[in-house]
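Hi support team,

I'm opening this ticket because the web form for multi-chain structure prediction keeps timing out on my end. I have pasted the exact lines I submitted so you can reproduce it. The total is 851 residues across two entries, so I didn't expect it to be a heavy job. Is there a limit I'm missing, or should I split the entries? Thanks in advance, R.K.
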Amino acid sequence: MKNTAVKQKYHIKKTSKKTLAHWYRLIIRGRTWDDRAPNYLKQAIGWSYHAPAAGHEGIQLAMGQTFDRDTDHLFPYYRDLVTCVSAGLTSEEIIYNGISKDTDVAGGGRHMSNHFAKPEWNIHNVSSNTGNHALHAAGTARAMKTYNHKGVVICSQGESSASEGYVYEAINGASNEKLPVIFVIQDNGYGISVPKKDQTANRKVANNFTGFKNLRIIHCNGKDVFDSMNAMAEAKEWVLENVTPVIVQANCVRIHSHSNSDRHELYRDDYELNYVAEYDPVAKFRRLLLRYDRFTEDELVKIEEEIRAEVKEAHKKGLAAPDPDPDSIYDFVIPEPYRAEKYPEGIHNEDGPKKKMIEAINETLKAEFRLNPDTYIWGQDIAHKEKGGIFNVTKGMQKEFGKERVFNAPIAEDYILGTANGMSRFNPKIRVVVEGAEFADYFWPAMEQYVEISHEYWRSKGQYSPNVTIRLASGGYIGGGLYHSQSTEGSLTTFPGVRVVYPSFADDAAGLLRTAIRSKGVTLFLEPKALYNAPVAATAVPGDFEVPFGKARVRKEGRDLSVFTYGNTTHMCLEAAGQYEKEKGYSIEVVDLRSLSPLDKDTILKSVRKTGKVLVVHEDKVFSGFGAEVAAFIADEAFEYLDGPPVRLGAAFTPVGFNRILEKAILPNTEKILEAIKQIIEY
Amino acid sequence: MKKIGIFYSFNTTKTGQAVKMLSEALGKENVETVNAETVNKDQVLSYDNMIFGVPTWFDGELPNYWDEFVPELEDMNLKGKKMAIFGNGDQKNYPENFVDGIGIMADLLESRGAEIVGLTSAEGYHFESSRALRGDKFAGLALDFENQPRQNKERIGKWAEQLQKEFL
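Hello R.K., no limit was hit. The queue was backed up. Here is the completed structure from your submission:
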C-alpha cells in the first residue's frame, strides 16, 4: 500500500535490480534462520527462546537498511532477526547467538537467545524487558545532539510495549528535548496472547502520541518492503533535517506464536491464522519481483539455493563453535575501578578547616566537572537558577558548567536513569552523574532501569560499560516519614554489577564520589541526608582526596568489641562506644564500612579476629537488611574467632513513622546502640 | 447496456457472496467477473464500467492482491472509465478504519482519471473514521458482514439500481 504521506523513493518498478537482489538475499537469509530456529530447540541444541520475525520482514528489512553503522545507533528487540541480518549480521553471527556460543557477538551466550546485537557496530544488546531500551535510545540521541553528531537512533519495539510507562517517558523526553530518534513500533496485534484491544483504546497505538509536540508519526505497512523502506527513509531524512523524533508504526502480522513457549492455536482460530499467513511479507515480495518482471523464477531460486547452502555451512560452524567457559562467570561483572593511587587506603592526614558533607560533595562534583569536560549531571529539581537540588547539593553547577551539562529532568526516575544508560553508550569517555530521585524513597520507579544497568557489562561480555554514578539522598532522622526516610541499600546491594557506597563523613563522601566519577561502571552513591549539614560529619577534606572502593575505615580502634556500621549510625556508634568506654573502661572498635559492595572483608576479619565480639549496626531494618550479609559473612569466615553470635541492630520491621516519637521508636539511636554494646560485653 | 466488469478475489468468501448478490441484482447477463488475484492491465482497460470488490484488511489496508496490483494501476490511464467500489468492513471491531479500503482504492482510481460512481450514504453505520468518506457519503458501498449481515441484500439491491443509472 502506498503511503502518500512520504516520498516514494523505492518502488518495485524503479529500484535497481542489484538493490532488489540484495534485499531478497537478506530477507531469505532471515526467513531461513527464522524457520530453522525451532529445530534447534527440538534437538536440544539451543535457541530455547525464539520470537519469530515471520510477518515483520518488510519493516525489519527497512530498519536494517536504514541503519548506518558509521553514524547511527540501533536498538533492536527480541523479534528483530531480520533487522539484524539486514543491518549486516552474518549467518554465523545469527547462529552463534541462537545457540548461545562463546563466539556470539552480542555477548558470548550470556544473554537470552534471539537477542541479536553487535555492540561493535552500535547494534545494542538490549533487555528482554520489552521496550525499556526506548529510554536508552533517548539517552544516546541526547548524546548525539550534545556532541553535534549527525546520525539517528533507531529504536525498535512491539506495539504492546507502548503500554509500558517508560516508553511514554522516552517518547515524551524525545519530544521535549527534540532528540534524533526513530521509534519503530512493529504492530502485530498481540502482546503474547493479549490482543491490542486489551492494551489501549487506539488500534494504532502511535496515534496515542498525536498530541506530542515536535513529533512526526508515520504509518506504514510493515509487511510490504517498499512501503516500509519509504517510511524509514522518510523518517531518517526528517530526523536528520529537523533533529526531532519520529514514530514509525508498521503494521505487521504475527504468522507464528509469540515465541516457542506460546501456543497461538489456543487463542487464534483457523480463519485468523489463514489470513495472516496469506499476507506473508516474503511471499508478497517474491510475487512482486516476478509480477513486475524484475526477476525470473530461476533467478530467485538461485538466490534461495545460495542462501540455503550458506545457512547449512553456518550451521556446521555453529555446532563446532566453542561454548562459554564456566570459569568465566566472574569476568566482566563490573569494570576495574579508577585506581586511587594517591590515597590507596582512602585515608589522609589533612588538618585544614572542616567542611560539611554538603560542601564536600558540591566541591568534588565541581572539581571533577572542571577536570573532565565529558561529565554530565541531571535529575529532578537539580538546576533552576539559584536552586541545585532539593538540598542544594548541586548549587552553582549549572551556572558554571551550562545547561548542556547540568540540567533538570522530568519527574520520571526511570527516564533519569535510563537516559544515563543511553548517553553512556555514545562515548566511553562520558561520565554521567544522576540524582536518581528527589529522595531515595522515590527511586523505586527506576528499579527496572537499575536492574538493567547492573548487568549491561556482564551481558555484553565487557563490550559496553555504563559509566554512571547514581546519587541518592538517603535515610531518615529528619522527621520525614514513610517517603523521606527510607533506607534502600538492603534492596539495592543484591545486584552484581553495581558498586554501593554509603559514606558517613565529609572526607569519605568527597573521596568516594571522586573515585566513582572517574571509574568505569555503575556506582550507587548513597548520601545520608541528615548529615549534609551536621557538624559531626564535617571534616578536613584534601582537594584531591580519593577513596578506593572496598576499603572500610577504622574510625576508632578497640580490643573488646567490633562495631561495623555505615552512614548515619556511624556517628551514633562512635558516641555510644566512647560513652561506654568512659563508663566501663572497655575498648570498642568502630569500623565505618563506607563501601557496601564491594565489601572490605579483610578489615572486617582483622577486627573480628582481634575482638571476638561483633555488633552490626545500620539504620535500615534488621530483617533482611544489609547487616544480615555482614553477620553471615562473619559467621562463615571467622566463626572460630567469635565469643558469641554476631548481633545486629537496626530499625524495627515497620515503615518509618512521621511523628518524631514514632521515628525515634523505630530507628536505631545512640541509646539503643549503647544498650546493645552493654548486653554483648556484659553477657 | 455495456458489460460491467466485476473485479474481486475468487478466493474470498464474503466478498464472493456479495458479488453473487450483486450479479443477480444487475442481471447476470450484464456482468463479467475477473479474478483480482491475477488481474492485469488489459483486463481493466477492456471495460468502461467496472466494479471493484475491495474489502479492508487489518487496520485499514488493501488486501494483498489489490496492493500488489497498485504499481500497475499507477501507470494506467483510466480517463472515461466509470468505476464503482464495494467493500467489507467491521464497524464494531475496526471503527477507526471502517472500509478504508474503498477510500484508498477510490483515491487511486480517481488519480488515474476514473470517475467514481456508486457513492452511498454513510447513514446507518456507526464508526469513528473512514478513508472512504466523501462528505457524508462513502465512495462506494460499505458492507458489514460481521455486524449488519441482514442489511446486505437490501443495500446491494439498492446499489445495483443506482449503478444501473450511473453506468449509463
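A quick check on our side: Chain B touches chain A at residues 57-59, 61-62, 64, 67-68, 70-72, 74-75, 93-94, 96-97, 104, 107-108 (CB under 8 Å). Let us know if the file doesn't open in your viewer.
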